[in-house]
Amino acid sequence: MSSMRAVVCLEPGRMELQHVPVPEPAPDEVIVRVEASGVCGSDIRGFHGRHPDIQDYPIILGHEYAGTVVALGSAASGPPVGTRVAVEPLTVCGHCRGCIEGHYQLCDHLKLNGHHYEGSFCEFTRAQSVFCFPIPDAMSFRVAAFAEPVAVAVHAVKRSRATVGDLVVVLGAGPIGNLCMQVARAAGARVLISDVDPPKLEVARATGADFVVNAARESVEDAVRDLTGGTGADIVMEAAGVSATLRQTVHLARKGGTIVAVGFTADETDSIRLTDVTIRELDFLGTVIYCRDYPATLDLLSSGRVITEPLVTHEYTLEALAEQAAVVASKPSGMIKPLILPQQR
Ligand SMILES: [Zn+2]
Ligand SMILES: [Zn+2]
Asked: pTM value?
């Protein structure tokens, strides 16, 4: 194995199937044969040239993947060759303040597969060996490929401190919103989730949402007022990455409640009424990727408390992804999580 098939994003808006060299592992890295990879909103931003951390083209996008370890770097300490793994698609320095304090998601030199170096829309990719987590025999690669976005949701829900009896509002029912809903429910909360796209709301219902609101037809604020007797939600999670829903968060949270900005708009002009945050003593929290959240994530997935199959709406080989990249990147209604199967033809 010296060359591999890869979908290369040559420049914003242009993807092409190419044969490229199989990457070589650094001493602390392994090579993973990619068996399944989700397409994330950030891949789509990267495809359009609108992701702040994806600036270096050409690039192989993709970071939500699972596969098999096939080669080890000289100092790799993680699982041996042949192990089926879910991967945290990160490289961290180990020396900065974030790393030393145990918050490696805040590493000053954080790099991600598909953002700063080759990603997972290809047959083989590189991973730091300490970030490879063996998966149970019974867990399929297509489920394990969801570990990454589920870990994002686990981290966000931990940040929110959601607990038994809380009412959590999740704005946006795409993959991250849906998974935040499922993880918050696993933590004991009741969850209201909203979106404007009916197929996403269907999937939200099928995956256990307590209350589903079509924000194109009903007022989320009215629904929350009715459910809480006018008090407001304990926790509001913004997962749409839209300025309008970001602004809405402060009107949905109860006094003393918590807002978690999970999505980001990459828009310089977002305006939140900080007066509301101050006077109503809200906790307004950011959240980024995850940190030591994979064990809990794999437990949620293997126990079935988080289910992912209803989210998979489309499947592509590498060839099909290269051909249909523009369609995938247009995020048509009904497309929730496209899954790439790089070993299939
Ligand atoms: Zn992602
Ligand atoms: Zn660091």
From this structure: 0.96
